[in-house]
Design brief:
About 55% of the residues lie in helices and about 0% in strands. It comes from Snodgrassella alvi. One of its GO terms (biological process) is DNA integration. One of its GO terms (molecular function) is DNA binding.
C-alpha cells in the first residue's frame, strides 16, 4: 500500500481488498490467506482546539441585542455554547 495516503484511505482500500478476497474464496475455493493477515492501520484521533473563555465572551458579545435578530442570535449562541450543540443541529431549532 502507498504509505503517502491517509490512514483512512489505506483502511478503505484494504477493506475493499478483503471483501474481494472473501468473494474469491467463496466462488473459487481459493485457500490463499495473504490478504487476511494484513492489518488495517488505525485512524489518528484529532482533538479540536480548545476555545478560551476570552474568545467565547468575545463571540457572545458580537450580536446586537437591541434588535430582534441580534437577540435571537445571542440566544442561539448561548444555547449552542451551554449545551454543546453542533451548528447543523442548532440551525434546525425552531425559536
Amino acid at each position: 500500500m502507498n504509505t503517502e495516503e491517509k490512514p483512512s484511505s489505506q483502511a478503505s482500500a484494504l477493506s475493499a481488498c478483503k471483501k474481494l478476497f472473501r468473494w474469491l474464496q467463496e466462488y473459487t475455493r481459493s485457500t490463499d490467506a495473504s490478504i487476511k493477515q494484513r492489518q488495517i492501520s488505525k485512524k489518528d484521533l484529532c482533538l479540536p482546539d480548545i476555545t478560551s473563555e476570552t474568545q467565547i465572551n468575545g463571540l457572545l458579545s458580537i450580536p446586537d441585542t437591541d434588535t430582534a435578530y441580534g437577540l435571537r442570535n445571542n440566544i442561539l449562541l448561548e444555547v449552542m455554547y451551554t449545551t454543546g450543540l453542533r451548528i447543523s443541529t442548532a440551525v434546525n431549532l425552531y425559536i
